[in-house]
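stuck on this fold:
=====
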Amino acid sequence: MKKFYKYFIILIIILNSWNLFAQSNTHFRLVELTNLAGTYNNHNNKIKVDGEEYFYFNFTYPTEEFLIKIYPAQKYSDKEFVFYSSADYEFTDSVYYIQDHYETKIKFKNIIDNPKLSFKYSISEQNSKSNVFEIILLPVAVMDCGFVKTPEELFTGEEFLVEIYSSLPENIVINLSWNKEFPVHYRMIKSKTDEIIINFLATQPGQYSIPIYLELKKPMMDENGNLIYKYGPLKLDINVKTSRLAFLSTDIKEISIDEKNRSEGVEIQIDYNRNLQLQKTYRIENSEAPGGVLIAELFTKSRLANNKVLAVVRTYNYHNQTDGLMYIKDGDEPKFITNFSIIPLTKIQSVRIMRDGSNWLNSTSLYPGEEVLIRFEGQSLLRSKISVEDLQIIKSDTLLSSNEVIEFRALVPFDIKKRNLNVLVNNQPTGLMFHIVEYERIRAFDYITIDYGAGPKELLSYTGPAFTPKTIKDIVISFDVNKIDSNNELYGNQYLDIEVKITGSRGEVLEVLNLNSVLVSPGSLSPRYQFYNRKNSNTVILLNQYLNRKTFDLDSWVRIQITFKPSKATSLSRSDIKTVDIIVQKSARFDIDVSFPAGLITKKIGDPGYGDLGGISLAMIAQFSFYQKEKINRFRPYKIGAGFIAINALNFADNNALRDMGVVIIGSLYPTTKESKMTFPLYLGGGYLLSSDKWFVLLGPGIRVRL
């Protein structure tokens, strides 16, 4: 039973996973891509690679443009699809909804060099979070290749170059290593004008048919629908003949030209031949006929035990093995042939870097923790080992590796110690350097807290005015410096402008304080802590140290507005600015009112009846007004106070029996729409009449004048 239950749970998990996967692929009933080669859709052009399903399409150009049509599924026909640009492609037309489908044009930025292409979209659904989905794409190359021209015969030791024609040369992987499977060795190189060339070297005489396979970056598809990553074979039929002159091979295949090599020469080992004389100087020229260009001189020193001859070569002119054989001459008479390269000394002429998503920059500034593509341009770059101190080389890009250009991807360690990194050639400094600079990126204000007496509170958590009924002893701005940097992401020194504006209860400006370029440096938990310039860095700011009007002297309903913004922001958005309002709130106010109640109904305690209706009275009341909670300087509609009232005070008739003076406790209801000097309240209270010597209660309207 337990075993059955276990399998049942596994089945449920598998079904749920399948449903989730299916959901992301059933938003549409058809997706079409159309280019000059044809039309492709996600139903007829599906293929599985390593268990993952792809929508494949043919392409003939790296930045090809496609018309894309997306037909939503029936259940999603009333939903709005949102399509996103990405690093893979860009929209070259607006998105239109035509009858039952979306239609637009996209242009791929570089189909070949993107490891994984996908088309991203989202769906707006009511009461649900908008998730981003993707259609995984697999580009399939349509291309043809062939030799431009091949020789029919050559001699042993001779090299020759064959240009490769291709309709899509960007898709061919350049393999610089020699293939020595056949007696005619070969490798791929790229010319200065970016043609792809096969470099052949004949080592043994004979008739050969050499099959050449070209490795591809993006696959092609064979007749059976299988993906293939090789093009070929291209066959080279060649007859290699034995030269009439003996070929002498050297142990060193590349020699650089410099002043030392011209004067002192370079020791090499060359094949022994019985006709090669010792202690003799030979000329090395580029042609068999007399009067050839002098390439080098060869001085034979002594014979070695390994059937080689120790010799010294002094170089005078450049020569590449691909240029053909060189002739070893005694005077003008050729005696032997050989072949090796005499190349310029490795020299780096320029350095450029590229960060992900940006263009090439003529810069040597690097940031800790970042990954960059570095390009060196110069001469004879492939002949030497080029490196940069303390950088981690992630991957070399062989597509652009040549004697003129070398590119590689490098990672700058987070904890790199040096400020200047030497560029090395064969482990020797070149004088070129990369410079490590610290980040000064703008970070969200999640590391700032404010305490005005109610305890510290994160700046970003303020969503409205903060009311405080207490006296503000000080406002403390604190910076959690250990939040700025982490082990995975660096922001560096933060520079803030802080503006403090204090306004009174009527909106009048009392004081404005500007603290500009406030420096906050990352804390000791940052991997770059010891490298930051922390001079004048702040961890706490007490505003009363800078304010003329101290916070503890402020009256009620004074507003303290504190605005934070980055000092070095080039273009500020709402997310770059944060403002906090702190308002000194009071629960009640004490004042003295003079009012003229009219038509008061006064009822003396103990007298019969409902009381007397008086004329205009005069009241002077010391009373408390109460503020509405979380509203700025707005009163509640009632007041409570105590004072004196002269009943019927403005009736001067001699027989006025209602005139009297009383001590009263009174409550009143007031309109709260405006602050005005004259209002018409409603009174309710009671007290003691001094002339009548009686207790009484009163009720009625009045005219209130506020002094």
Observations:
- The helical segments are 2-23, 259-263.
- The chain has six domains: 21-141, 145-241, 246-344, 347-436, 445-584, 588-706.
